[in-house]
Amino acid sequence: MASPIAVYSLPDLKNTTDDALPNYLTSLDFEQTHFLTDIRLVLGYSAVIIAAVTFAFDYQCGWDETKGYTYWAVITYFLLNGALTFWIWFAEKGKVFQGLTQNGTLLTIASSVPKHNPTYQIVVRWTDPKTSEAFDWETREISAPFTTWFSPDGQFIAKPFQQWLSSKIPVIAAADGAGSNKKTENKRARSGL
Predict the structure, then answer these.
(1) At what angle do helices 10-27 and 158-168 cross, to 10 degrees?
(2) How far apart are the first and last CA of the chain?
(3) Are 145 and 13 in contact (CB under 8 A)?
(4) CB distance 16 to 156 below 8 Å
(5) How confident is the model at residue 1 (pLDDT cuts 50, 70, 90)?
(6) How many CB atoms sit inside 10 A of residue 181's CB?
(7) How many other CB atoms are found less than 10 A from the CB of residue 15?
(8) Are strands 119-127 and 95-100 parallel, antiparallel or unpaired?
(9) What does the alpha-carbon distance between residue 176 and residue 184 come to, in Å, rounded to a whole number?
(10) Which residues on adjacent β-strands are paired with residue 143?
(11) Percent composition of the chain: helix, strand, coil (DSSP 3-state, to 5)
(12) Distance of alpha carbon 61 from alpha carbon 58, whole angstroms
């Protein structure tokens, strides 16, 4: 069993719940896509590599020889960090899961917690490209207090969380209903859910 978290720490409650979401959905045979994370990593690591190379070049050759290169490296570094900030705020927008099912249903979940309010809010968007034209997304906003799936001593209880999701989101309910076979139960047992 995982160690308990501080039940009065909203970031801890949100992060623990965010971490449980992909585990549950992948146990239902949703395949998580990592495109958003990959772009974030490319932008972040590119900026760090530019800074490291500039430092090494300056350390090796001295300021006078490298100041022209340093000027362009600093500009590139700030442009990459600006692009990274834009990506996090406007492209990711709090998304904690993006994936698809075996039948092609796309699912995106973004989470948030209002300031000083222990309520977990998610925006769920899904579409089935086989039945809808031009990616006609269905959207549902749901929320529940963290006390629904956290015990008073800070233990995360997966079953109420899973039941809450499957009772509110039809695409998850369909996957959970279809996923009650032994394969899914074994997968859930391995993932700790």
Answers:
(1) 70
(2) 10
(3) no
(4) yes
(5) low
(6) 9
(7) 15
(8) unpaired
(9) 9
(10) 121
(11) 55, 20, 25
(12) 5
Mean pLDDT of the chain: 89
Cα separation of 137 and 32, whole Å? Answer: 18
DSSP state of 147: G
DSSP E strands in the chain: the ranges are 31-32, 95-100, 106-112, 119-127, 138-145
Q: Contacts from 38-46 at CB under 8 Å and sequence distance 24+?
A: 39/87, 39/91, 40/84, 40/87, 40/88, 40/92, 43/80, 43/81, 43/83, 43/84, 43/87, 44/84, 46/80
Can you tell me which residue has the tokens 């997304």?
A: 137
HSE value, Cβ hemisphere, 13 Å, CA-based, for 182: 0
| pLDDT of 105 | 86
DSSP state of 77: H
| Model confidence pLDDT, tens digit, residues 102-133 | 888 899 999 999 999 999 999 999 987 666 56
pTM of the model as a whole? 0.82
Q: Long-range contacts made by residues 141-150, C-beta under 8 angstroms, separation at least 24?
A: 142/168, 142/169, 143/119, 144/119, 144/120, 145/118, 145/119, 145/120, 146/7, 146/13, 146/17, 146/118, 146/119, 146/120, 147/118, 149/17, 150/5, 150/7, 150/13, 150/16
